[in-house]
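Q: Sequence in, structure out?
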Amino acid sequence: MKHLFKLLLLSILILASAPATGYAGPLEAYDEAYELSITSGASMASYHDRAGELATRYLEQDGWQIAHYVQPHNKAGARFLVAKKDGLLGKTVYIVAIVGTENLNDMKFNLKADKVYFGGSTFEEFAANAALKNISTDQPQVHKGFNEFTQSGLTAKLSDSSGPSLRFTDLLNSDNDYILYLTGHSLGGAAATIAGARLIDIGIPPDKLKVITFGAPAVGNPAFAAKYQPILDLTRVVISGDPVTGVLQTLAGGYKQFGREIKWELPATTHDDPHKLTSYVDLALKNYYDERKKALLAGAELAKPRISKEAITEPVYIAPLKNNLPPALKNEYRYMSEALRDETRRIIPNFVTADKNSDDWRENALAAGCRWAIVPEVSALQVKQERHTYYITLTQTIYDVSTGTATDLTIYSTGTYNLTPLEAFIHAFKGSSSALVDALRRTSTNPDI
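A: Exactly. Output:
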């Protein structure tokens, strides 16, 4: 039992899902795009900054239970979140997202580039074997600092005792029908890879474990890669030009990447740093919207969105998003439209809209029998002397359809200092959703709409 408890405790530092191979059709490609989107979002939520707080909030809105784990007394070491959601694909899904390099203490782990022996069937054996000297390069070896960072996950504590306590003891003791994901960005992705290999050696079935990393460096030598390539379901997402993914092979030598690689390109008009997690999240979201569209065109039936408890039940006409973006952001518009439609489904599930852009929103709203119409508009103001920095503004005007007069207005603006334009837009409409619902209730004679 002690062994099982420790296994589950470190599993807190890990996450995985049943392996999927041969993404041949639109539905399979959509499923993978959803995985990449949700794990990149969880990776962002693991950080303790503004973007992390926003990502945590949005995951919770989508029905995920979230528990954050930190090192006691602010000691150096792994911090991570555990996320749980029931009912996806008929299973319980767990995600462990490990924070990447967040402070100077984390940087110290990155700099310990010597290799240590990797092997064992218990956590004690892994620690003892890592201390062995003069190990042949024919044996699996991993980056010393990454290994220490992963090992430190055993000492992490729940950051908020009033929140949910998600532990893998609960998972393994009560439910065998689950999917477990390990994920992380940069250093967090390296730790997720090492943790996944450990879990397999300790006894977690490989078909229940999946590792997805974003911008992660290589973690081990060729012997390590050869051993775990056949048994660890590892997907590495890499943006072209990200220097971190190849730094150890170039500077230290003796390291080798493995697993399936997905390579994305970064648009030069809106991004300037291929290693930023926000860049990975942005591209994951766009990939999700692209693959979802293909799946829908192929006739796939996709899961319904989670509806807010405060949702407006009366049908409301939603005009297509008005586009006042500058030319540099023209490719962002279609993704912003998709994102806005998703949020609208969450707060106004019975909304009505037109198939194409039309200025005659009132005629369409009257034909649909709606009392209220909302006309959304997106604009962007570039910050002077700041490259790729904008204030993204979403304006939503509520109209009385019978008279055509405006009855209320919500405006929300977000800067792209630490977000991409699409992420800033998502924050803008999520930030204004409650105000929009309140405004609709204020204008209606029926408070229960």
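Residues 421-443 form the longest helix (23 residues).
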